[in-house]
Amino acid sequence: MKPIVILFGISILFGVYAAQSKANIGNTVITKWQGDKKSAISITFDDGIINQLTVAKPILDKLGLPATFFIITGKVQGAAPGKFIGRPEQEIIDETARVKTNEENFFERGSLIGFTGTTEALDYHSRAGSLFEAGKKEEAYQLLDEGYAKLRKGNLRNTDEIVFHNNPVDTTTWQQYKQYALQGHEIASHTVTHPRLAILDEPNLLYELEQSKADIEKYLGKEYTFSAECPYGTEDERVMAYAHTIYPALRNRMPESYLEEINRSSKANPETSQKEYVQWQRGPVNSVGMAEMKGWVDTCLAHDNMWLVLVFHGVNGIGWEPRTDTELEQYFDYMHDRVSDIWIATFGDVTKYIHERKNSKIKETMEGDTIAVTVSSDLDATTYDVPMTLKTYVPSTWKTAFLHKKWESDQELRLEIYNEAAGSYTLYPYRLGEGELVLTEFGVK
Ligand SMILES: [Zn+2]
Fold it and tell me: What 8-state DSSP symbol labels residue 199?
């Protein structure tokens, strides 16, 4: 048989080959999800809240489930704190008495007010950001004028209410995060101070994104600088343009033509999507019952293109919309019971897998009963290090298969043979950057 070269788009071609089982032999595809599972789930937690780590994480650890924690680095001792970058603060504050807030000065004022020292000022920052992102620019300008007028008179107060990103009892150390990462969890960026990025000027916006990344790299390592979530689920165009140049993966938005993204607030039905992948984000806030949460998992399992991304916040009374440990345990158990069909992996790992699969080319050659497979990709193998699952059709007479890794001359892996209408096949892992793979019925060793 002549070598079959299958390029990008293999899953579309696959149908053609499937019709002829014999011609199928040697045909190799990258399965849609790792382990040839039916779908994927990523469990994510925002804001680096202490109970996520001391209450939710042990439940996950007991079940062997990894999660992604988007942390606010400025809260962690040793990291660079939040700060305002720009002209002298008093100069800006004095100017607010003479010049009303407008398009020209809005971002500078929006950046500064949160750092003027009170929780009420921080609240003005958040509310102005919320109005701005809702398209209510004039109202956002007026709100800042009101806030700065109070500031000039010394009338802004500290409220007793503890805000989730400034909670004195809510502390975690880099040593703890390092340990959590080594347990298989993803620690990722949620900026330095959790601001409304859409109303920051360029230096302050860049500081929030870059300094958070720099501290994570310094304390945990470069591998944890892959994913980020910009606060408040923002999709502001200007913010996204900056953030996409700094982080390879944003939970906020993933602009891939082959992927449909359904955000937390969207009521769109993921089951009607025709895209190859659907990233379906759901937020299990307090008003969502257990039956609905379990239903998301069931919906995911009923299709082959679905990646459920769960967005948790508070746990046991600390943080926004907290869920209890009992609820979490029940929910994670439900997922764990279905783990043979669902690939549960961190946000970063699923993103990498999809990118690897969509950006790799496979070449197979057959000589006698030996199938040789090579994979090539332009992706950086040190970043894109999640093992892909390759599926190769083998002669129906094979009772077993051996995988011989040419770059590890003494390694041989015995593989299972599975059967489906299109023929017999085997599954095996492959990491980008590895060399040629050889499959034979019997080991050569
Ligand atoms: Zn947040």
Answer: G
